[in-house]
Automatic annotation (TrEMBL):
InterPro entries: Big_13 (IPR044016), Ig-like_fold (IPR013783), Ig_E-set (IPR014756). SUPFAM superfamilies: E set domains. Signal peptide: none annotated. This is Bacterial Ig-like domain-containing protein. Residues 2-92, 99-187 form the Bacterial Ig-like domain.
Length: 187
């Protein structure tokens, strides 16, 4: 798909109407059908032939989930041949489940700490591939460390922070390229 977002080649996209460039189609092909299977239902569509070759874009937006595409070509003699199936995942959702100041030393949950190097833990869905943190309004970003527990990312600030109110900005990115930002105020 030309709309493979996030990690190239992972067949994931956050586009609900991804465009597929159909390659290796012989010049004597007169008809190209794309069969799409989603949740046990298969629907067939006719691909479009343009100056650059054959392509397919779903006529209506797809919801989140897996879609298996099989391309069948027909030549002038009436011979048909299906392709190897390709499964594509549409993923338009992302979340930050929880941002926690781990070394909160005041009343539990008040986000007040006496520690000059605060430690944070971010809980996210397991498809999140990157967690970035900033305490200077987004000018400088650091990467959190993925823990051995699925969906948990940790970071301990490496330098002493001055006393006072701070805002931690958290930016998460999943495999489909979806991004979300959350914040945590702490003192």
């Amino acid at each position: 798909s030309t709309d493979d977002t996030g990690t190239p080649g992972d067949d994931m996209t956050n586009r609900t109407r991804p465009t597929f460039i159909l390659q290796n189609i012989d010049s004597d092909v007169i008809n190209v059908t794309v069969s799409v299977t989603h949740n046990g239902t298969t629907t067939s569509f006719t691909a479009t032939q343009g100056a650059g070759g054959w392509s397919f874009t779903p006529p209506a937006p797809w919801g989140d989930g897996d879609y298996t595409l099989t391309v069948t070509v027909e030549d002038r003699a009436g011979n048909t041949r299906p392709s190897t199936p390709l499964t594509v995942t549409v993923d338009t959702q992302i979340a930050i489940d929880h941002i926690e100041l781990v070394n909160d030393s005041g009343v539990p949950g008040d986000n007040v700490t006496k520690h000059v190097r605060p430690q944070f833990q971010i809980s996210v869905p397991d498809d999140v591939e990157k967690v970035l943190l900033s305490i200077d309004g987004g000018t400088t970003w650091v990467t959190a460390i993925k823990s051995s527990t699925v969906g948990i990312w940790d970071y301990t600030w490496p330098t002493d922070m001055p006393e006072g109110q701070h805002t931690l900005i958290v930016e998460v990115t999943d495999g489909a390229g979806n991004k979300m930002t959350g914040t945590l105020d702490f003192t």
